[in-house]
Design a protein that fits this description.
There is one protein chain. The chain is α/β, with parallel strands linked by helices and about 160 residues long. The protein folds into two domains: about 60 residues, no CATH class; about 90 residues, no CATH class. It is built from eight helices and four strands; from the N terminus they run ββαβαβαααααα. It has a four-stranded mixed sheet with strand order 1-2-3-4. β1 and β2 form a beta hairpin.
């Protein structure tokens, strides 16, 4: 399989055969135009998807896909502000989280917080280990509560605007 200029995976005939022989369930996929397998056979096991038109720029492609978060509806529909506020244990945490949530909302980043919730839950369910924190993200107490990092920014008196500047 290859990637087109937008980073989309494009499968060849041999890629499809390999996946079928390995018993993989085939999800919607972009298939090269020169695949010669009888499409009536393939239609029963492969859901075809169209490649993005080469007529648009990479910037236009990015803009079109910025709100296409690949996560279950359970996470897409979560009231992220309520979820994070419920994780707070005292008034100091509530105050800090309230301030940070306003900053996230100003920047239209609630979908990012929803996705990070999904990502952390998925990593935990699959026993995937990730680092304790990196860079300015550790200044966000909201990310700490969601489990993205392990640095308590209230304890270390880290300024949340350091992350969201």
């Amino acid at each position: 399989m290859n990637k087109n200029k937008f980073g989309e995976l494009v499968y060849s005939e041999s890629d499809i055969i390999d996946l079928l022989m390995q018993g993989h369930q085939l999800v919607p996929m972009i298939v090269e135009s020169d695949v010669s397998i009888d499409t009536t056979v393939l239609d029963t096991v492969v859901e075809f998807s169209s490649a993005t038109s080469d007529g648009i720029s990479i910037e236009e492609y990015d803009s079109l896909n910025q709100c296409n978060w690949q996560m279950p509806d359970k996470y897409k529909n979560i009231d992220i502000a309520k979820h994070v506020l419920q994780l707070c244990k005292n008034d100091t945490e509530l105050q800090r989280v309230g301030e940070e949530l306003l900053l996230y909302q100003e920047r239209d980043l609630f979908d990012l917080l929803r996705y990070l919730t999904y990502l952390v839950d998925t990593m935990m369910e699959n026993n995937i280990i990730w680092g304790v924190g990196r860079g300015s993200s550790v200044a966000s107490y909201v990310l700490y509560l969601l489990g993205v990092h392990k640095i308590d920014s209230i304890y270390y008196d880290l300024e949340p605007r350091e992350f969201l500047r």
